[in-house]
Amino acid sequence: MATTLLLILIYFAFISLGLPDSMLGAAWPTIQLEMDMPMSAGGFIAMIVSTGTIISSFLSGKLIEKFGTGKLTVISVFFTAFALFGFSFSNHYAWLCIMAIPLGLGAGAVDSALNNFVALHFAAKHMNWLHSFWGIGATAGPIIMSLQITRNDSWQLGYLTVAIIQIILVGILLFSLPLWKKYSDNGSKAQESVEKKRQSVFKLPGITPALTGFFAYCALEATAGLWGASFLVHTKGVAADVAAGWISMYYMGITIGRVFSGFFTAKFSNQTLIRGGMGIIALGAILILSTSTAFLNLTGIILIGLGCAPIYPSMLHETPVRFGKENSSSLMGIQMAFAYIGTTLVPPAFGVFSDFAGIQYYPIFLLLLLVLMFFGNEKIHQVAMKRLQTQKVKI
Fold first, then answer.
1. Nearest to 221 by CA among 371, 57, 347
2. CA–CA separation, 25 vs 46, rounded Å?
3. pTM confidence score
4. Backbone CA torsion sign across 151, 157, 163, 169
5. What are the residue ranges spanned by the domains of the chain?
6. Is the CATH number of domain 204-395 2.40.30.10?
7. 44-66 pLDDT, tens per residue?
């Protein structure tokens, strides 16, 4: 019963994590007009959030050791709630930039902490379902913002609504701390002797290809979502409103795909799901590269989303297998930091490239990132299998 309650809390925490992630894009057209700011100013706020997320992800291993997953989750959600309240009372661009700092710091810490907790203590299906709940939050965020702008002509009320949801969650998490402590204590005593022997994670065999895989995956996912509509409009002649709808199908493919991936983990290993996902992405990219048929282009976009679905959760869940449970908490944050770096840097870089070379190279660029991800994943899998075989021989 306690385990079920804890899982429900973790799922709700991931919904709350996804809620603010997509709200800025939905609110920015209104904020831009109201504050008389250039279009690029919204990107600067997003970069501040991403920078905070990267920093807290790098530090998450030490923070988990100091506070434990339960307390760190409470603190992190409080940070995001505080930031969202700040957004809701803001009438100045500078204040939005200031509030973006705690929003990013809170998001990165809770993301890393919960992913590490699930990877250590729960089956792979829960990791996939966890990230599908993030998709629910990311889908609901713009809906909440849209309703408040439409009904009350106020983007601030959109942020206030989500801030209240976050504060309620903070209260629930506070009451749940005994559950977290009890669950965490089960593993901590068994790992005390191992913790003393833990080596620097950056010296672990296979760390470079592992980080490369995370960087390449999130770069691909973000680039596919950001520039897909522009590619369809300028290269395939799809109407702008239709292209926007098709890209929403891309995100729906990721969310629904992760729900089904949770069931597939009963029959397939994480590595099989990762390879299968990459194969589906390749098929989708080839479809939109090689044809102008509307149905096949839409199919290609959906396939890329479906292919993305199992990869990230499966890679995260493999962390204790690849590097050992004693290194999981430190590595989880570092891996996610490199993932965020890919999300932050690569899509804008492709945008600059497209200004000079054209957006028609979009599917080729996705395939290049896919190749980089493939080699990183295969290399770390080989290293992990070799480590596990060596341990069995010693036993």
1. 347
2. 9
3. 0.77
4. negative
5. 1-181, 204-395
6. no
7. 888 888 889 889 888 887 888 88
